[in-house]
Amino acid sequence: MQLNRLILPFLLFSLFAVGQDSIRVQNQAEVVVSAPGIPVVYYRSSRLSVADFELLPSGEMLLLTYPKQLKRGNELLVYDGRNVKKSFEVPDVAEELVRDFRGNPHVICQNSVYGVHVNSNEITLSTIDRPYFFKYLAPILDSNKTKLYFSNFSKDYPAFDYFSYDQWDSTYSKILEIKDDLMMELYRSEYKWVDVRTKLWAKNLELQTGTDAEIYVGANYFTQSLYYKSLYAPLFHRNDTLFVFDYYKDKLRTFDHLGNPLDSAVIDHHYDDRKTGWKSELIQDSETGEIYALYDRAGYSYLGWIDTKTGEITEKVRLEYRFIEKIAIHNNHVYYIYRPFESPQKKYLYQERLPYDFGSAKFIHDISKE
What we know:
Elements: H1 2-24, E1 32-34, E2 40-43, E3 49-55, E4 61-66, E5 75-79, E6 84-89, E7 94-99, E8 105-109, E9 113-118, E10 123-128, H2 130-137, E11 140-143, E12 147-151, E13 159-166, E14 171-179, H3 181-189, H4 196-209, H5 213-220, E15 235-238, E16 241-246, E17 251-256, E18 261-266, H6 273-276, E19 278-284, E20 291-297, E21 300-305, E22 316-322, E23 325-330, E24 333-338, E25 348-353
Parallel strand pairs: 1-22
Antiparallel strand pairs: 2-25, 3-4, 4-5, 5-6, 7-8, 8-9, 9-10, 11-12, 12-13, 13-14, 15-16, 16-17, 17-18, 19-20, 20-21, 21-22, 23-24, 24-25
């Protein structure tokens, strides 16, 4: 019984992978181009290393830095490309910088979350309860004049939905369901293999909550196995259009700002990740709205621009340095953190020009005027 439990998921995954790759993957000649110019150091310091960064609406850069270890002495800096205009010491152990759906920066710490406010004179922090932030603010992905776009994603469940919420009339609308059908089948089948005590525990929870016992077992056991992978199907907002990359149906789906379906295109750039180096990560240019797929081969990072009309990637841009960290794109420029291997240099922030000249994305459609 134990042997069957180990072999069955492997056979199902093997059969599924062979069938999918042989049918859907098309081998095309790859075009790799180099980014124009030489990478330049955007920020450097002999005392501080850069741990994270976020671009502010003013065009300045918010930097999370540390002198020796990230766990002590964290400092927030506001940098305008030439000079550090403001600095502030974080009162907790900082982990990373994030932006909420309105573009406001936050610093995530071990014990709390701080909203970062930058004015002409200083940096100030406002405390946000950490559970409240991740439960109510983090799920909101984007917004327009009256609508919020969010999901009920859970890393421990192989399906989730995208929704829109209208702030005018407080109504919810479902945009799209994302589900990995094979993963869901394996997730629920885990219930068959657990011992009687675990089944009784799950059944008791089902009677108390109404949630299937199979889900409780899958969340607590199958998610700890080698076969489980958390879903990745990001949503992006550009102009009046929503783009959802449904990798489990091999579709790039487009919707209008109200959540109504417009079109779809076949995508296959996520297949054969061992050969291509697909990192299961998409990055959007925060100025132009263009979307890029991230690849890694032999330590070099490659960015593939995605044509959102066809879903195709026709060429990839290789960045200059190996083993770079935290990639962000703004106005056709790539920003990343890098320190040469075995070098005493602190971690600097670098800038590299992409071989594209996309214009700024238009403002979000103002539906309040309709």
